[in-house]
């Protein structure tokens, strides 16, 4: 636990906080609970950052982080009387796999040119890898947001008690 | 539970009200399970058994009168244009709980629904600013430095403003995604062309993220998990088409800047 590592974690959480709040504005999250979206986004994202640093795979780390966001969302839903989705959605979308989607797409543009493909046949493998990553990561975000449906046998989050309120 | 006071609300009246709420929820970004649970609470208040069939483009609902089983109505209503607005989900959720717990009268509920529907979203300049800050921050999270982030901020802000301007021209909404992603890509390509910043790739990859239909994509998977297959397919297809439009806009932009630079 060096100071450098802690600074990196703080930077990650700080930036993700802003991303989540701004996504909240884009999705029309009520103004009073924007801070919750930011808090969950910041905590979830830096939790993923720490997991990745300890050598966890990207997909597993994203899954654990989005499940953390989903569970924390249920707790906050009780506290501020909002459905959890209004803050878990912007918080989870901080981890949207933009870079991998972009690389898949750029590869797709490149292989429309046969010359480029002959020069670099490894492009196909790269595209396949990036597409699979993109879809897997999207699925993990959805699992995190719908964690209340998957883990609890209740119709509404209001009926879920996590032991403290 | 207090006994249900029916107030002589007819099945037709209730069906219309439920449709009104249901399509508005769908268009605001609620997944089908949420639409169903909200409508179920409203129906339980007046003791109507209901069945709903949510689709992405509209909602079919069947309401039966428990006391006169031969009186059944089935109605369909188109959804208004989809526009994600999560505050609406909060307001309808609270309203449906209050209707059930406090036994609100029908006329009062109708009035409150109208009030919720009239609720305005955030000002679009504010949204554009937020989008810029989000994409700039994501750029830094993806390995860019301050100069890359500034580039991503400018590109996303300009694209967001342009998208609303194009939408107001009443073209097919998909055109706005192509136009916005094209403009964003061209502006975000600046650091790639002039070689500044630590990671120009991060700028291009993150500047268009505000266009990614995250809510429909994630709702599609949630619907899939909950078994609303028709809706899951339509949402997935809608999101996939938007992604395709973004890719098309980026392709134009990248081709214009010269594919060899990337």
UniProtKB/TrEMBL annotation, chain A:
GO terms under biological process: succinate transport
UniProt cross-references to Pfam families, sorted A to Z: ThrE_2
Domain of life: Bacteria
Membrane topology value: Multi-pass membrane protein
TM segment ranges: 6-26, 57-77, 84-102, 131-152
InterPro entries according to UniProt: ThrE_2 (IPR024528), ThrE_Dicarb/AminoAcid_Exp (IPR050539)
Key words, A-Z: Cell inner membrane, Cell membrane, Membrane, Transmembrane, Transmembrane helix
Compartments, record wording: Cell membrane
GO CC term (a single one): plasma membrane
Domain Threonine/Serine exporter ThrE, first and last residues per copy: 13-149
Principal subcellular localisation of the protein: membrane
Keyword Aminoacyl-tRNA synthetase: no
Family membership: Belongs to the ThrE exporter (TC 2.A.79) family.
PANTHER family: SUCCINATE TRANSPORTER SUBUNIT YJJB-RELATED, UPF0442 PROTEIN YJJB-RELATED
Record-given protein name: Threonine/Serine exporter ThrE domain-containing protein
């Amino acid at each position: 636990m060096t100071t450098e590592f802690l600074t990196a974690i703080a930077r990650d959480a700080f930036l993700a906080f802003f991303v989540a709040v701004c996504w909240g504005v884009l999705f029309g999250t009520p103004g009073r609970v924007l801070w919750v979206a930011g808090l969950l986004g910041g905590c979830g994202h830096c939790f993923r950052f720490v997991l990745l640093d300890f050598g966890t795979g990207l997909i597993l780390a994203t899954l654990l982080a989005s499940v953390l966001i989903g569970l924390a969302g249920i707790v906050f839903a009780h506290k501020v009387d909002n459905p959890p989705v209004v803050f878990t959605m912007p918080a989870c979308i901080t981890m949207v796999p933009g870079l991998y989607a972009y690389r898949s797409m750029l590869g797709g543009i490149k292989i429309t040119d046969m010359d480029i493909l002959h020069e670099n046949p490894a492009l196909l493998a790269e595209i396949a890898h990036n597409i699979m990553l993109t879809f897997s990561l999207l699925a993990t975000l959805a699992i995190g947001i719908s964690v209340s449906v998957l883990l609890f046998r209740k119709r509404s989050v209001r009926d879920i008690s996590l032991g403290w309120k | 539970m207090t006994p249900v006071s029916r107030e002589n609300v007819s099945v037709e009246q209730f069906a219309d009200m439920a449709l009104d709420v249901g399509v508005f929820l769908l268009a605001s970004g609620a997944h089908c399970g949420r639409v169903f649970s909200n409508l179920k609470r409203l129906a339980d208040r007046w003791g109507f058994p209901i069945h709903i069939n949510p689709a992405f483009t509209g909602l079919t609902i069947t309401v039966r009168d428990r006391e006169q089983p031969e009186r059944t109505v089935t109605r369909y209503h188109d959804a208004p244009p989809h526009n994600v607005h999560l505050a609406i989900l909060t307001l309808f959720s609270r309203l449906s709980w209050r209707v059930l717990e406090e036994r609100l009268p029908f006329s009062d509920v109708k009035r409150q629904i109208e009030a919720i529907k009239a609720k305005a979203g955030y000002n679009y300049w504010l949204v554009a600013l937020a989008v810029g800050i989000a994409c700039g921050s994501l750029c830094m999270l993806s390995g860019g430095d301050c100069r890359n982030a500034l580039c991503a901020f400018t590109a996303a802000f300009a694209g967001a403003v342009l998208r609303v301007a194009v939408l107001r021209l009443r073209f097919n909404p998909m055109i706005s995604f192509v136009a916005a992603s094209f403009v964003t890509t061209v502006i975000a390509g600046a650091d790639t062309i002039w070689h500044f910043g630590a990671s120009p790739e991060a700028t291009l990859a993150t500047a268009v993220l505000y266009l990614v239909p995250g809510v429909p994509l994630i709702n599609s998977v949630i619907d899939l998990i909950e078994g609303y297959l028709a809706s899951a397919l339509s949402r997935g297809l809608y999101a996939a088409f938007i992604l395709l439009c973004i890719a098309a806009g980026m392709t134009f932009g990248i081709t214009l800047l010269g594919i060899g630079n990337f």
